[in-house]
UniProtKB/TrEMBL annotation, chain A:
General function of this protein: Required for the biogenesis of c-type cytochromes. Possible subunit of a heme lyase.
Domain Cytochrome c-type biogenesis protein CcmF C-terminal: 315-630
Similarity comment: Belongs to the CcmF/CycK/Ccl1/NrfE/CcsA family.
Transmembrane segments: 6-26, 38-61, 96-113, 125-144, 175-195, 207-229, 249-267, 274-292, 312-331, 352-374, 394-413, 425-444, 450-469, 489-509, 609-629
Subcellular location field: Cell inner membrane
Zinc-finger among keywords: no
NCBIfam families: nrfE, PRK10369.1
Residue stretches making up the Cytochrome c assembly protein domain: 89-295
Superkingdom, taxonomy of origin: Bacteria
InterPro entries in alphabetical order: CcmF_C, Cyt_c_assembly, Cyt_c_biogenesis, Cyt_c_biogenesis_CcmF
Source organism per UniProt: Thiomicrorhabdus marina
Record protein name field: Heme lyase CcmF/NrfE family subunit
Keywords carried by this UniProt record: Cell inner membrane, Cell membrane, Cytochrome c-type biogenesis, Lyase, Membrane, Transmembrane, Transmembrane helix
Primary localisation category: membrane
From TrEMBL, chain B:
Organism: Thiomicrorhabdus marina
Membrane topology label: Single-pass membrane protein
Localisation: Cell inner membrane
Name this protein carries in UniProt: DsbE family thiol:disulfide interchange protein
SUPFAM superfamilies xrefs: Thioredoxin-like
Residue ranges annotated for the Thioredoxin domain, each copy included: 32-169
Classification via InterPro entries: Periplasmic_diS_OxRdtase_DsbE (IPR004799), Redoxin (IPR013740), Thioredoxin-like_sf (IPR036249), Thioredoxin_CS (IPR017937), Thioredoxin_domain (IPR013766), Thioredoxin_ResA/DsbE_sf (IPR050553)
Main location: membrane
Keyword Disulfide bond (UniProt): yes
Pfam families registered for this protein in UniProt: Redoxin
Length: 642, 176
């Protein structure tokens, strides 16, 4: 009975979504304020019913209700409680319910915190969110009902994919969905602006807050996914340019660009049309990512169950939502855009250039991701595009991006002089050059041009950002200090990630060796002694646990226990790496196959600065959110009507 | 044409590609094992318990079908295999994957046995060597012991007629 209530509440949620989508629009059209006012209660009702429905699914997992097909397929009695809960979103149907819940949550938040937006704008935004919600709810009800029952109730469930039995992966999807779905708010805002045919500067500030929060979640979600892949997949890689990873990176890149154009729209009242396009694009890419992941048109290490009916539904949904949005954009964007003059040397030019670079990055990643699909669709070839393509194309785009970023901080709106910029920025430039050439000589084992280039870019971004912070309140621009500080932190975070990527890509050492108990193998100053493997039995898996003693310069540093696990209800063996983590380097040991006798294939890795990749992501997210604090102090009212 | 319409046009082209993509099967991407020698194993035959290994079939083309009694799609493809085995002489070796001998035998008794040889892989060791990531999977091995094709998922009459038969005919013409 309880799962049926869950199912029924999804239908009730759909009813609320329909009211949300229709009532405000009709209200605006007929000038009926009672209808417009329905938006808020509808948003609240929708959220409550999705929440209860979701909790019912969680409940079905915790009480092992294997009469529910989705529970039987993804959980069993031996699964630890925390993974029973996280199994709720461990597969397709539950993920979608979480998606719908988070969308309802964002809608609820928009209904409550609508700031200074006029009532009709909020009503339109809520209505657009309602339309998106209808689409997703129908998707759940038609193709992916998590509450479907089994006629023959199994005694035991099949359990959650062991790869997902991990704390990192328990929180990775909700984070990512918060980001994906949060971009729906910016999207709804853009559509509302196009419908109204008016774009005030103050509104851009409102949209920016929501976009930054969604972007911060997306940043953390992507970083968590990368961190998880690093320690759980056993390869020691942190990014694979896998279609599913790319699907999360695409909206991130565009959301990053969007935050910056929203800044321009908010401070200068220009570039509105470009801002709206990016807002539509960011959410379109979230939907495209969902399509690519859920329809199974691309093969991926993530290997989600695919179902063509689902693919067809999402494609239709994508066509309706994005197609209508772009039609609207094509017809009406000229109404809201204002061009204001600016010189070639100006903050506008720099921000716009970086925007173009970000869009180019998105386009190259998108092309690489769907290229196999395009060739296949044209019947030309079947192939996959790998890391070499992506690394090759991203590098030349990152260099100008980083260079311009540094100039962007110090530059003035409307008109600036190159000489002035150079005069201002010589200090960060010299400091960056010094770091880039001296640090490798002192710290790194061998000289590499790419390492110098990567460090130069990172140091340039970090120093020019700090320089901007130190030069308080330059040329009379009013900037709340928290906004500047947060922004500086976020950009330094990017520099930190870039440093991590550079050094770990160039200086990592990876050895696959055959080791017998007692045998040692040395990498740099580290010596790894293999002590053999013992069998262990845990709640829901058997493990072959190896012991490796690590010596640094002859003294014992740590003991690592890499494992090879076989989960009882699954067949695939899982690798748990043993990792000794430090800010400056990771030592990574993974067990391979058992060889003859007591010997094992062991993968030893030395990964310098790999932590910086994730540390930088955290700084980006934190900085972005900090920059939103106390922004009320300085919003210049005079500009709002400009 | 207005420049504001460009995104719409690009999006339209993308949708066409995606729509075509939906009709295709990405799992058809060639397995890395294709063109490589068949992985060796030595496993007991289900009924006789005599060890079987792929080298015993060198010099003839054969089919390796990975199946299990617990696998639903194996039921779907089974009659196709039975039908094939009745009409064609090519040997089909069944690799019974992570199953119990009792259940495997009961299953073959109930649904018919298309396999000349059935081997037990209770631990799934051989399955890993063959890169199995879902049951059923079907491999075609040529006279030199090289893997020529891999079918992921259940065999269908269409796959047998359009892909399997032409391939076997081609292998037949090659020298052993």
């Amino acid at each position: 009975m309880i799962p049926e209530i869950g199912h029924f509440f999804v239908i009730v949620g759909l009813a609320f979504a329909i009211v949300l989508a229709v009532a405000p629009m009709v209200g605006i059209h007929k000038n009926n304020s009672a209808l417009i006012a329905l938006a808020k209660p509808a948003a609240i009702g929708q959220f409550i019913f999705f929440l209860i429905s979701f909790l019912i699914l969680v409940y079905s997992f915790t009480v092992n209700d294997f009469s529910v097909k989705y529970v039987a397929a993804n959980s069993n009695t031996q699964l630890p409680m925390i993974y029973k809960v996280s199994a709720t979103w461990g597969a397709h149907e539950g993920s979608l319910l979480l998606w719908a819940l988070i969308l309802a949550g964002w809608t609820f938040a928009v209904a409550l915190f609508n700031g200074k937006l006029p009532e009709d704008m909020i009503a339109r935004i809520l209505a657009v969110l309602g339309v998106v919600s209808i689409g997703f709810t129908l998707f759940i009800l038609i193709t992916s009902n998590p509450f479907e029952r089994l006629t023959n109730v199994p005694v035991e469930g099949r359990s959650l994919n062991p790869l997902l039995q991990d704390i990192g992966l328990a929180i990775h999807p909700p984070m990512l969905y918060m980001g994906y779905v949060g971009l729906a708010v910016a999207f709804a805002f853009a559509i509302a602006v196009l419908l109204k045919g008016e774009f005030q500067m103050a509104w851009a500030r409102w949209a920016k807050i929501w976009t930054v929060v969604a972007w911060a979640f997306l940043t953390l979600g992507i970083a968590l996914g990368s961190w998880w892949a690093y320690y759980e997949l056993g390869w020691g890689g942190w990014w694979f340019w896998d279609p599913v990873e790319n699907a999360s990176l695409l909206p991130w890149i565009i959301a990053t660009a969007l935050i910056h154009t929203l800044s321009i729209s908010a401070s200068r009242g220009t570039f509105q049309s470009w801002t709206l396009l990016l807002a539509i694009l960011a959410f379109a890419l979230s939907l495209l990512g969902t399509f690519l992941v859920r329809s199974g048109v691309l093969t991926s290490v993530h290997a989600f169950t695919s179902d063509p009916a689902r693919g067809v539904f999402i494609l239709i949904f994508l066509v309706v939502i994005v197609g209508v949005s772009l039609l609207l954009y094509s017809a009406r964007s000229h109404l809201v855009t204002k061009s204001k003059p600016f010189k070639l040397a100006s903050k506008e030019t720099i921000l716009l250039s970086n925007n173009v670079i970000l869009v180019a990055m998105m386009a190259t990643v998108l092309l690489g991701t769907i290229y196999p699909l395009i060739l296949d669709a044209l019947g030309l070839a079947k192939l996959s595009v790998g890391a070499p393509y992506f690394n090759t194309v991203m590098l030349p785009l990152t260099v100008p991006l980083a260079l311009l970023m540094g100039f962007g901080f110090a530059s003035r709106w409307i008109e600036d002089k190159p000489q002035r910029l150079l005069q201002k920025l010589w200090l960060p430039a010299v400091a960056a050059l010094l770091v880039a050439f001296i640090a490798p000589l002192l710290l790194l084992p061998e000289f590499s041009g790419l390492a110098v280039l990567g460090l130069l870019m990172s140091a340039w971004i970090a120093f020019s950002a700090l320089h901007w912070l130190v030069q308080k309140n330059p040329h009379g621009q009013i900037k709340p200090s928290m906004q500047t500080a947060g922004s500086v932190l976020a950009h330094i975070g990017f520099a930190v990630t870039l440093t991590g990527i550079t050094i770990t890509s160039i200086y990592s050492i990876e050895k696959d060796v055959r080791l017998e108990p007692g045998q040692k193998y040395a990498i740099n100053q580290y010596e790894f002694e293999f002590k053999g493997v013992v069998q262990k039995e845990k709640d829901n898996y058997l493990a072959s646990q190896g012991t490796v003693i690590v010596y640094e310069n002859g003294a014992e540093l740590t003991r690592l226990y890499p494992e090879k696990r076989t989960y009882l209800s699954q067949t695939m063996p899982m690798t748990e790496a043993g990792i000794d983590a430090k800010l400056s380097r990771d030592l990574f040991v993974a067990l391979g196959e058992k060889l003859n006798g007591d010997a094992w294939a062991v993968r030893l890795q030395y990964k310098p600065f790999v932590r910086w990749i994730w540390l930088g992501s955290i700084l980006m997210a934190v900085g972005g959110v900090l920059a939103l604090i106390r922004r009320k102090t300085a919003a210049p009212r005079a500009e709002a009507t400009a | 044409m207005k420049k504001q319409s460009m995104p719409l046009i690009i999006f339209g082209a993308l949708v066409i590609v995606l729509a075509i993509g939906l009709t295709l099967d990405p799992k058809d991407v060639p397995s890395p094992l294709i063109g490589k020698p068949a992985s060796e194993f030595s496993l007991p035959e289900l009924y006789t318990q005599e060890p079987f290994s792929p080298t015993q079939l060198k010099g003839e083309a054969w089919i390796l079908n990975i199946w299990a009694s617990w696998c639903v799609s194996c039921r779907q493809e089974h009659e196709v295999l039975v039908e094939f085995s009745e009409k064609y002489p090519t040997k089909i070796v069944g690799l019974n994957y992570k199953d119990t001998p009792e259940e495997a035998k009961a299953w073959l008794k109930q649904f018919g046995n298309p396999y000349q040889i059935t081997v037990e892989d209770q631990q799934g060791r051989a399955g890993i060597d063959w890169g199995v990531y879902g049951v059923p999977e079907t491999f075609v091995i040529d006279k030199k012991g090289i893997i020529r094709h891999k079918f992921t998922g259940p065999m269908t009459r269409k796959r047998v007629n359009d892909e399997l038969k032409p391939l076997l005919a081609q292998i037949d013409k090659e020298p052993s």
